[in-house]
Amino acid sequence: MRVTAAAAIFILFALPRGLRAQNSGGPVGMFEGHGDVGTVLHPGSTDYDASTKTYTITGSGNNMWSIEDDFQFAWKKMSGDVTLTANISFIGLGGVPHRKGVLMIRQSLDADSVYVDAALHGNGLTALQFRDEKGAVTHDIESNIFSTQRMRLEKRGDFFYLYLSGGSEELHPAGASVRVPIKEPFYVGIGVCAHDKNVVETAVFSNVDVSEAPPVAADAPTTLYSTLETIAINSTDRHVLYVAPERFEAPNWTRDANALIFNRDGRIVHMAVAGGPIRIIDTGFAIRCNNDHGLSPDGALLAISDQSKEGHKSLVYIVPSGGGTPRRITQNAPSYWHGWSPDGQTLAFVGERNGEFDIYSILAAGGEEKRLTTAPGLDDGPEYSPDGKYIYFNSERTGTMQIWRMHPDGTEQEQLLSEDSNDWFPHISPDGKWMVFLSFEKDVKGHPPNQNVVLRLMSLSNKKVTILARLFGGQGTINVPSWSPDSAQLAFVSYELLPNVTGEKK
Q1: Burial, 199: exposed, middle or buried (Cβ in 10 Å; 0-12, 13-18, 19+)?
Q2: Percent of all residues in the chain with a pLDDT value above 70, rounded to a whole number
Q3: CATH of span 5-212
Q4: Selection from 205, 211, 244, 204 nearest residue 228 by Cα
Q5: What is the pTM of this model?
Q6: CATH code of the domain occupying 287-481
């Protein structure tokens, strides 16, 4: 059939912009269309074998990263909550290590579109990748599970979740989740990128399922998953270290950077960053520890806040970092530890006295507590700067929770930021250059769990604030100091509140 010049122009401009001047095709299997997104030197292809119900996708492209994606994509338009599941296997050994086979939900077919995908790399790495604004830089959350056999990308509202399985095990949450608003309708599909513009790579997608996620009633049973993560401040890329269907909270980094400690089920536990068994730190009778704990500057001692005594009201104790008998520091309850002075001689803590929460200091050797704040309303989260010149804290004295600082004797209290949010838990990097804090939405009171929150970073030199991550968290995410010793990374806990649904076995 001949196509006139006018008809050719109409067809060209009827295509989504990301597919213009690229090879594009019509329906294939369950998908409405396919083609190359972005710029490729070698045209890709998508083939469907109805007898085996498998898709074989060949794709080229420089990468799916930074501000532009180049890959072959088979897609369909959808709306609402969606699950996309498949087995992915690459053809050929020894290919490009970071060639990618992906399950993707994408706002448009533009190369710089907002998207989220579940990516299997050629070297076995699995990750949740995303671009949260059009033209923005891509980021990822790398799973601690390699060489998975089956993957699922699930969209519920603005949140996306990664599920993985290997062998005969059920699909289970991998701990990677992200909040990225995508408008309806959007593109749902599968794709391949070679990660090298000069070559092509091929992957087979089998047992592919694209479904509307079943609705979940407001009172339906759910399971809470906690994920221990790290984030690099120079790239904001995240790494999952540990995930479990339970609540744990508030990681501290050990001084040698080899391990993290956090609280779980009233105990303080120790876990190597490289992985391995979780060890309970012996804290004697103190078996109702909360999320206010941290190591002394030399790493020899551990301050804990425990509710085993005084009518289950929190008190501050010190134990050897390797475990031992707690030594009581605060006589009045409730008291919640938050900071060590750089010389290790003084503790900063929050105490409720006569119905008012204020910031206090006390010698690590024990003695009388000293009240540092007297303003009406809650003052919380005190932490010393590495040079000892300031105590940073958060205060609601202006009507919303904001970040403040003062001298260690309580003088010259000054507000650092005026934000349209409730800001909590300022933590200063060991090199004194950065402050991380957690922002709750404006109408949220206190620091409750299970909230949409933003992990934010401020340069102390110019007060410029940037976003590190948008996540589901709150209480337990970064209540205590969580910087790595080299000031390059943060540890935090994110959460997933997932409906109890029957998993599939593959």
Answers
A1: middle
A2: 94
A3: 2.60.120.200
A4: 244
A5: 0.93
A6: 2.120.10.30
